[in-house]
């Protein structure tokens, strides 16, 4: 999948977000090393704690289908600022893909690419538990 197609897949998920409380849609498109793509959107909950972010939705879908080797993810929002992953999502991405490319978009389609190391320096990973 091209970079533009991956970005379009993430943006398409914005309309599927369940956001009755924050009204802040987020879409994600996660690409696996074999080219398979899993998409996700944020799904809010009235008690807030069970809310799941778009990135974690995509990761959960991928892992539940047997994929664990991720190469890049696009995270799209409609805000003026870039839509970057929250701390929990950064840690979940770290679990499976410490070298993942993270492409963040804002509502105007502007983008910036990050490494996970830039967003989560000195991270804790599975190797610490071996």
From TrEMBL:
Gene Ontology MF terms: cytidine deaminase activity; identical protein binding; zinc ion binding
Essential cofactor(s): Zn(2+)
Keyword terms of this UniProt record: Hydrolase, Metal-binding, Zinc
Keyword Metal-binding attached: yes
Active site: residue positions: 55 (proton donor)
Signal peptide: none
Residue ranges of every copy of the CMP/dCMP-type deaminase domain listed in the record: 1-127
Xref: Gene3D superfamilies: Cytidine Deaminase, domain 2
Transmembrane segments: none
Catalysis: reaction(s): 2'-deoxycytidine + H2O + H(+) = 2'-deoxyuridine + NH4(+); cytidine + H2O + H(+) = uridine + NH4(+)
GO cellular component, one term: cytosol
GO BP annotations, alphabetical order: nucleobase-containing small molecule metabolic process; pyrimidine-containing compound metabolic process
InterPro entries: APOBEC/CMP_deaminase_Zn-bd, CMP_dCMP_dom, Cyt/Deoxycyt_deaminase, Cyt_deam_tetra, Cytidine_deaminase-like
Pfam families: dCMP_cyt_deam_1
Amino acids binding Zn(2+): 53, 86, 89
Primary role: This enzyme scavenges exogenous and endogenous cytidine and 2'-deoxycytidine for UMP synthesis.
Name of the molecule in the record: Cytidine deaminase
Source organism of this protein record: Dysosmobacter welbionis
Taxonomic placement: Bacteria, Bacillati, Bacillota, Clostridia, Eubacteriales
């Amino acid at each position: 999948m091209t970079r533009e197609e991956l970005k379009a897949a993430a943006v398409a998920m914005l309309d599927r977000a369940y956001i009755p409380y924050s009204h802040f849609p987020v879409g994600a498109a996660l690409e696996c090393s074999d080219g398979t793509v899993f998409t996700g959107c944020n799904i809010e909950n009235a008690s807030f704690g069970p809310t799941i972010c778009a990135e974690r939705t995509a990761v959960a879908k991928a892992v539940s289908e047997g994929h664990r080797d991720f190469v890049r993810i696009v995270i799209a929002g409609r805000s003026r600022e870039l839509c970057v992953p929250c701390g929990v999502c950064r840690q979940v991405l770290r679990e499976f893909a410490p070298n993942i490319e993270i492409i963040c978009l804002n509502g105007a389609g502007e983008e910036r690419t990050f490494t996970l190391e830039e967003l989560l320096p000195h991270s804790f990973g599975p190797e610490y538990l071996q």
